[in-house]
TrEMBL record:
Cited Gene3D superfamilies: P-loop containing nucleotide triphosphate hydrolases
Protein name per the record: DNA replication protein DnaC
InterPro entries: IstB_ATP-bd, P-loop_NTPase
Source taxon at top rank: Bacteria
Domain IstB-like ATP-binding: 89-257
A Pfam entry, by short name: IstB_IS21
Length: 259
Protein backbone atom coordinates (compact mmCIF):
# COMPACT_ATOMS: atom_id res chain seq x y z
CA UNK A 1 0.00 0.00 0.00
CA UNK A 2 2.82 2.39 0.91
CA UNK A 3 4.51 1.68 -2.43
CA UNK A 4 1.35 2.64 -4.36
CA UNK A 5 1.07 5.91 -2.41
CA UNK A 6 4.69 6.68 -3.20
CA UNK A 7 4.06 6.12 -6.92
CA UNK A 8 1.03 8.41 -6.84
CA UNK A 9 2.88 11.13 -4.94
CA UNK A 10 5.78 10.98 -7.35
CA UNK A 11 3.59 10.97 -10.47
CA UNK A 12 5.39 12.84 -13.23
CA UNK A 13 3.36 15.90 -14.21
CA UNK A 14 3.89 18.59 -16.78
CA UNK A 15 1.55 21.60 -16.86
CA UNK A 16 0.74 22.37 -20.50
CA UNK A 17 -1.64 25.32 -20.25
CA UNK A 18 -4.48 26.90 -18.27
CA UNK A 19 -7.72 28.13 -19.81
CA UNK A 20 -11.41 28.71 -19.11
CA UNK A 21 -13.55 25.79 -20.28
CA UNK A 22 -16.21 26.78 -22.85
CA UNK A 23 -18.59 24.19 -21.43
CA UNK A 24 -18.49 24.67 -17.65
CA UNK A 25 -16.71 28.07 -17.55
CA UNK A 26 -14.26 26.80 -14.91
CA UNK A 27 -10.51 27.50 -14.76
CA UNK A 28 -8.82 24.39 -16.15
CA UNK A 29 -5.24 23.21 -15.82
CA UNK A 30 -4.32 20.95 -18.72
CA UNK A 31 -1.60 18.60 -17.48
CA UNK A 32 0.44 15.86 -19.08
CA UNK A 33 0.92 12.82 -16.84
CA UNK A 34 3.01 9.67 -17.15
CA UNK A 35 1.45 6.48 -15.75
CA UNK A 36 4.05 5.11 -13.29
CA UNK A 37 2.92 1.49 -12.81
CA UNK A 38 0.75 -1.23 -14.27
CA UNK A 39 0.28 -2.49 -17.84
CA UNK A 40 0.26 1.09 -19.14
CA UNK A 41 3.37 2.18 -17.22
CA UNK A 42 5.27 4.90 -19.07
CA UNK A 43 2.26 5.93 -21.16
CA UNK A 44 1.61 9.66 -21.26
CA UNK A 45 -1.95 11.00 -20.93
CA UNK A 46 -3.56 14.45 -20.88
CA UNK A 47 -5.81 15.39 -17.94
CA UNK A 48 -7.91 18.54 -17.54
CA UNK A 49 -8.03 19.42 -13.84
CA UNK A 50 -10.84 21.74 -12.80
CA UNK A 51 -13.26 20.90 -15.66
CA UNK A 52 -16.67 19.80 -14.37
CA UNK A 53 -18.39 19.19 -17.72
CA UNK A 54 -18.82 15.48 -16.98
CA UNK A 55 -20.34 16.29 -13.59
CA UNK A 56 -22.79 18.70 -15.24
CA UNK A 57 -23.79 16.07 -17.81
CA UNK A 58 -24.41 13.52 -15.06
CA UNK A 59 -26.47 16.05 -13.09
CA UNK A 60 -28.53 16.92 -16.19
CA UNK A 61 -29.13 13.25 -16.93
CA UNK A 62 -30.26 12.68 -13.35
CA UNK A 63 -32.55 15.72 -13.55
CA UNK A 64 -34.10 14.51 -16.80
CA UNK A 65 -34.67 11.07 -15.30
CA UNK A 66 -36.30 12.66 -12.25
CA UNK A 67 -38.56 14.81 -14.45
CA UNK A 68 -39.55 11.78 -16.55
CA UNK A 69 -40.46 9.83 -13.43
CA UNK A 70 -42.42 12.80 -12.09
CA UNK A 71 -44.30 13.19 -15.38
CA UNK A 72 -45.11 9.48 -15.38
CA UNK A 73 -46.36 9.66 -11.80
CA UNK A 74 -48.51 12.72 -12.55
CA UNK A 75 -50.03 11.03 -15.58
CA UNK A 76 -50.69 7.79 -13.69
CA UNK A 77 -52.47 9.73 -10.95
CA UNK A 78 -54.46 11.73 -13.52
CA UNK A 79 -55.55 8.60 -15.37
CA UNK A 80 -56.41 6.76 -12.15
CA UNK A 81 -58.56 9.42 -10.51
CA UNK A 82 -59.89 11.52 -13.39
CA UNK A 83 -63.33 10.91 -14.83
CA UNK A 84 -63.17 11.85 -18.52
CA UNK A 85 -64.98 10.75 -21.65
CA UNK A 86 -63.02 8.81 -24.26
CA UNK A 87 -63.60 11.64 -26.72
CA UNK A 88 -61.35 13.88 -24.59
CA UNK A 89 -58.34 11.53 -24.48
CA UNK A 90 -56.80 13.15 -27.58
CA UNK A 91 -57.98 16.70 -26.86
CA UNK A 92 -55.23 19.32 -26.89
CA UNK A 93 -55.09 23.09 -27.15
CA UNK A 94 -53.47 22.73 -30.57
CA UNK A 95 -56.24 20.56 -32.06
CA UNK A 96 -59.09 22.74 -30.77
CA UNK A 97 -60.51 24.30 -33.94
CA UNK A 98 -62.71 27.32 -33.09
CA UNK A 99 -65.62 27.96 -35.43
CA UNK A 100 -66.12 31.71 -34.84
CA UNK A 101 -64.46 34.80 -33.38
CA UNK A 102 -65.92 34.24 -29.90
CA UNK A 103 -64.36 30.79 -29.73
CA UNK A 104 -61.06 32.08 -31.13
CA UNK A 105 -60.99 34.59 -28.25
CA UNK A 106 -61.90 31.80 -25.82
CA UNK A 107 -58.94 29.71 -27.01
CA UNK A 108 -56.63 32.72 -26.67
CA UNK A 109 -57.90 33.39 -23.13
CA UNK A 110 -57.28 29.77 -22.16
CA UNK A 111 -53.74 29.95 -23.59
CA UNK A 112 -53.14 33.12 -21.55
CA UNK A 113 -54.46 31.39 -18.42
CA UNK A 114 -52.04 28.50 -18.94
CA UNK A 115 -49.05 30.80 -19.48
CA UNK A 116 -49.83 32.88 -16.39
CA UNK A 117 -50.78 29.93 -14.16
CA UNK A 118 -49.54 30.20 -10.58
CA UNK A 119 -52.07 27.93 -8.87
CA UNK A 120 -54.59 30.44 -7.50
CA UNK A 121 -56.71 31.96 -10.29
CA UNK A 122 -60.00 30.19 -11.16
CA UNK A 123 -61.70 29.98 -14.53
CA UNK A 124 -65.33 29.45 -15.55
CA UNK A 125 -66.09 28.35 -19.10
CA UNK A 126 -69.76 28.85 -19.90
CA UNK A 127 -71.77 28.51 -23.08
CA UNK A 128 -74.06 26.32 -25.14
CA UNK A 129 -73.64 22.57 -25.58
CA UNK A 130 -70.86 21.42 -27.87
CA UNK A 131 -68.75 24.59 -28.04
CA UNK A 132 -65.65 22.82 -26.72
CA UNK A 133 -65.64 23.78 -23.06
CA UNK A 134 -64.55 20.32 -21.93
CA UNK A 135 -62.00 20.11 -24.75
CA UNK A 136 -60.34 23.35 -23.66
CA UNK A 137 -60.46 22.54 -19.96
CA UNK A 138 -58.82 19.13 -20.36
CA UNK A 139 -56.24 20.82 -22.60
CA UNK A 140 -55.36 23.06 -19.65
CA UNK A 141 -54.60 20.02 -17.48
CA UNK A 142 -52.34 18.51 -20.14
CA UNK A 143 -50.32 21.69 -20.63
CA UNK A 144 -49.90 22.24 -16.89
CA UNK A 145 -48.86 18.63 -16.24
CA UNK A 146 -46.10 19.14 -18.81
CA UNK A 147 -44.84 21.88 -16.46
CA UNK A 148 -44.98 19.59 -13.43
CA UNK A 149 -48.32 20.61 -11.92
CA UNK A 150 -50.63 17.93 -10.53
CA UNK A 151 -54.06 18.11 -12.16
CA UNK A 152 -57.40 16.34 -12.03
CA UNK A 153 -60.37 16.37 -14.41
CA UNK A 154 -63.75 15.39 -12.96
CA UNK A 155 -67.20 15.50 -14.45
CA UNK A 156 -69.25 16.67 -11.47
CA UNK A 157 -72.22 14.34 -12.15
CA UNK A 158 -69.85 11.37 -12.49
CA UNK A 159 -67.92 12.42 -9.41
CA UNK A 160 -71.03 12.51 -7.23
CA UNK A 161 -72.06 9.10 -8.59
CA UNK A 162 -68.59 7.72 -7.84
CA UNK A 163 -68.67 9.09 -4.29
CA UNK A 164 -72.02 7.37 -3.67
CA UNK A 165 -70.60 4.09 -4.97
CA UNK A 166 -67.73 4.24 -2.50
CA UNK A 167 -70.26 3.78 0.30
CA UNK A 168 -71.05 0.24 -0.84
CA UNK A 169 -67.98 -0.97 -2.75
CA UNK A 170 -64.30 -1.51 -2.18
CA UNK A 171 -61.57 0.41 -4.01
CA UNK A 172 -61.06 4.16 -3.91
CA UNK A 173 -62.68 5.53 -0.74
CA UNK A 174 -64.49 8.84 -0.45
CA UNK A 175 -61.80 10.17 1.89
CA UNK A 176 -59.06 9.21 -0.57
CA UNK A 177 -60.87 10.84 -3.47
CA UNK A 178 -61.60 14.05 -1.56
CA UNK A 179 -58.00 14.14 -0.35
CA UNK A 180 -56.73 14.03 -3.94
CA UNK A 181 -59.25 16.72 -4.96
CA UNK A 182 -58.00 18.95 -2.16
CA UNK A 183 -54.32 18.33 -2.92
CA UNK A 184 -53.98 18.87 -6.67
CA UNK A 185 -52.65 22.12 -8.11
CA UNK A 186 -55.53 22.36 -10.59
CA UNK A 187 -58.97 20.76 -10.45
CA UNK A 188 -61.37 20.80 -13.39
CA UNK A 189 -65.03 20.42 -12.41
CA UNK A 190 -66.77 19.72 -15.68
CA UNK A 191 -70.48 20.07 -16.47
CA UNK A 192 -71.58 21.79 -13.25
CA UNK A 193 -75.36 22.04 -13.05
CA UNK A 194 -75.96 18.79 -14.92
CA UNK A 195 -75.92 16.77 -11.69
CA UNK A 196 -79.12 15.71 -9.97
CA UNK A 197 -79.99 18.45 -7.50
CA UNK A 198 -80.45 17.17 -3.96
CA UNK A 199 -79.59 18.43 -0.51
CA UNK A 200 -76.75 15.89 -0.43
CA UNK A 201 -75.27 16.95 -3.80
CA UNK A 202 -75.45 20.64 -2.82
CA UNK A 203 -73.72 19.92 0.48
CA UNK A 204 -71.05 17.73 -1.17
CA UNK A 205 -70.33 20.38 -3.78
CA UNK A 206 -69.82 22.98 -1.04
CA UNK A 207 -67.41 20.60 0.73
CA UNK A 208 -65.38 20.25 -2.46
CA UNK A 209 -65.38 23.99 -3.13
CA UNK A 210 -64.46 24.77 0.47
CA UNK A 211 -61.54 22.32 0.36
CA UNK A 212 -60.29 24.01 -2.82
CA UNK A 213 -60.22 27.49 -1.27
CA UNK A 214 -57.02 29.25 -2.35
CA UNK A 215 -56.26 26.70 -5.08
CA UNK A 216 -57.01 26.92 -8.80
CA UNK A 217 -60.20 25.36 -10.13
CA UNK A 218 -61.63 25.41 -13.66
CA UNK A 219 -65.41 25.10 -13.96
CA UNK A 220 -67.48 24.37 -17.06
CA UNK A 221 -71.24 24.77 -17.36
CA UNK A 222 -73.98 25.06 -19.98
CA UNK A 223 -76.03 27.32 -17.71
CA UNK A 224 -76.32 31.08 -17.45
CA UNK A 225 -75.30 32.76 -14.19
CA UNK A 226 -78.92 32.95 -12.95
CA UNK A 227 -79.57 29.33 -13.88
CA UNK A 228 -76.34 28.18 -12.26
CA UNK A 229 -77.03 30.11 -9.05
CA UNK A 230 -80.47 28.51 -8.81
CA UNK A 231 -79.10 25.08 -9.64
CA UNK A 232 -76.13 24.86 -7.22
CA UNK A 233 -77.42 27.24 -4.48
CA UNK A 234 -76.44 30.83 -3.92
CA UNK A 235 -73.79 29.85 -1.36
CA UNK A 236 -72.03 27.48 -3.77
CA UNK A 237 -72.33 29.98 -6.62
CA UNK A 238 -70.75 32.67 -4.47
CA UNK A 239 -67.86 30.37 -3.56
CA UNK A 240 -67.36 29.41 -7.23
CA UNK A 241 -67.12 33.05 -8.33
CA UNK A 242 -64.37 33.99 -5.86
CA UNK A 243 -61.23 34.97 -7.80
CA UNK A 244 -62.77 33.57 -11.00
CA UNK A 245 -62.45 34.83 -14.57
CA UNK A 246 -65.39 34.01 -16.86
CA UNK A 247 -65.01 32.96 -20.50
CA UNK A 248 -68.28 32.93 -22.47
CA UNK A 249 -68.23 30.44 -25.36
CA UNK A 250 -70.96 31.10 -27.91
CA UNK A 251 -71.12 29.19 -31.16
CA UNK A 252 -72.51 26.24 -33.07
CA UNK A 253 -72.08 22.68 -31.78
CA UNK A 254 -68.31 22.06 -31.91
CA UNK A 255 -68.85 18.30 -32.23
CA UNK A 256 -70.90 18.81 -35.39
CA UNK A 257 -68.71 21.48 -36.99
CA UNK A 258 -68.06 19.27 -40.04
CA UNK A 259 -71.73 19.72 -41.04
Amino acid sequence: MESIKQHINSLEQNLLETFVCDGCHQQVSQTELMIPIGPRAGERIIANYGCICDDIKLAEAAKQKHNQLKQSKLMDSFNYYSLTNRSLKEATLENYDPTNNDLIKAKQSVAAYINAFEGEQNLLLTGAYGTGKSHLSVSITKKLMERGFECLFLSLPKLLTKIKRTYNTEGVTEDELLSVIQRVDLLVLDDIGAEQQTEWSTSKLFEILDDRSGKATVYTTNLSSDELKERVSERNFSRMMENTNVIVMNGSDYRRRAF
